[in-house]
Amino acid sequence: MTAVEGTTVRVDEVEELAADGLRWLVSAARETGTGALAWPSASSREETDPTLYSGTAGIVAVLLEAWRHFGDDSYADLALRAGRGVAAAVDGHEDDSLYFGRSGMALVLHTLGDELDDSACATAAGRAMDLVRAHFDGERWGELFELMGGNGGIGLAALEVGDPGFAVLAVEPYLRAAEHTPWGVTWPHRPGPDARMHHMSHGTLGIAFALARIGHASGRADLVDLALAGVADVVARDEGGPDGFLVRHSTPQYLPDLIEPVSYGWCHGPTGDAQIFRLLRDTHGDPAWAALADRCWHTVTRSGLPRRLRPGFWDNNGRCCGTAGVLALACDRTAERTGGQQAYDFALTLVADLTARAVRDGEGARWSNIEHRATPSELAPRTDWAQGSAGIVRELLRFVRLGRGGDPGYAFAWPDQPRVSAQATEPIRRAGTDVTS
Questions:
Q1: HSE-up (13 A, CA, CB side) for residue 267
Q2: pLDDT higher for 338 or 210?
Q3: Fewer C-beta neighbours within 10 Å, C or N terminus of the chain?
């Protein structure tokens, strides 16, 4: 679907679009017994997926967001029913990671326990983390050894649920596994001689984020120092300076026939890189980190996105790899007043693009991504946080609050996105202002 040039949206209309997105999401839920809800897997409509990245746990996050945003208890009820579905999957799920497994499920259940005072979800969260701890072999949980699928994310989840000792235990293996480079350190994202990845999702910066956050919270200077060595390695690889910041996906290029050498989203690009620089800015107070975050933003806003400049460039609307993830950073910068009017204006551009690309009908609103190498190239709409409507709706609701001068925080805070350090108390622009893509 091609974005419509000159599309104009208003903040109230963005809220209506988000509400339509929620309606479509809710309609896709399945009852799984005793009132529990679950959402289908992206890979198989016959199976359900309980995870944070692509399944029910990630949809709980947007239901909590809707509850806080609209003040409508029906969304809290839906979130609890979805929590029952996540809890029912804890024992049978095979993965322990933050994004793909029990740690993320535990974090969502823990949040439901706290926010909605639900003892069953709290108990299930504890059960899930007990299983995660039991599966630790002293070094790792499985093949992946990074933020999304390995130790880093599990450590962040442990910290969020109030177990800093377990968080430290999860990330200490990085001290032993670090590979020294001329500029710092790096890590393999899985065993073997594969390429070394550099960014947040599977690479050095994601590991460094976990080390820095856990090290700072626990007073472990050795973990923080290791994090800084990892960041130093990635900063030394920058090809976008002095004003910008752009590091290649991996060295040597991982799957070169499938993956482009540079990307701009959260997962493998400067949108995600900026998040660790925000964290280090807040924990270290050195203006050099804020300057690096600014350089990331410079590169993102001059890359050409969200325009689809060519096949394979910016074919994704979602939170992990696409426009919604950039919108999250734009809203961070708006709330912190670090980007001035330009950050809000770019957020408006992103929202206008998402509005133009939405498919809306009697069932609600949803979004499709593009795989330009496939025929047909337009993929089926997904419900999940990472590549689907849940992640998009969550960011649209936050944008609406910012436009009205409201709370720029989240009802459910992702552990690898730092909370804003200073909240905007007045709208950057009048809420009814037209927005043109």
A1: 19
A2: 210
A3: N
Banded model confidence at residue 431, pLDDT cuts 50, 70, 90: very low
Quick one: how many helices (H) and strands (E) in the chain?
A: 15, 10
In this predicted structure, what is the pLDDT of residue 436? 47
DSSP letter, residue 173: H
**402 CA to centre of own chain:** 19
The answer to whether 85 and 32 have CB atoms below 8 angstroms apart is yes
Distance CA 418, CA 437 (A): 28
CA distance 63 to 78: 7
**pLDDT of res. 7:** 57
DSSP letters spanning 220-286: -HHHHHHHHHHHHHHHTT--STTT-----SEESPSSTTTS-S---STTTSHHHHHHHHHHHHHHH--
Distances (CA, A) of 241 to 107, 186, 194, 261: 38, 21, 27, 17
DSSP 222-238: HHHHHHHHHHHHHHTT-
Share of the chain above pLDDT 70, in %: 95
What pTM value is reported for the model?
A: 0.95
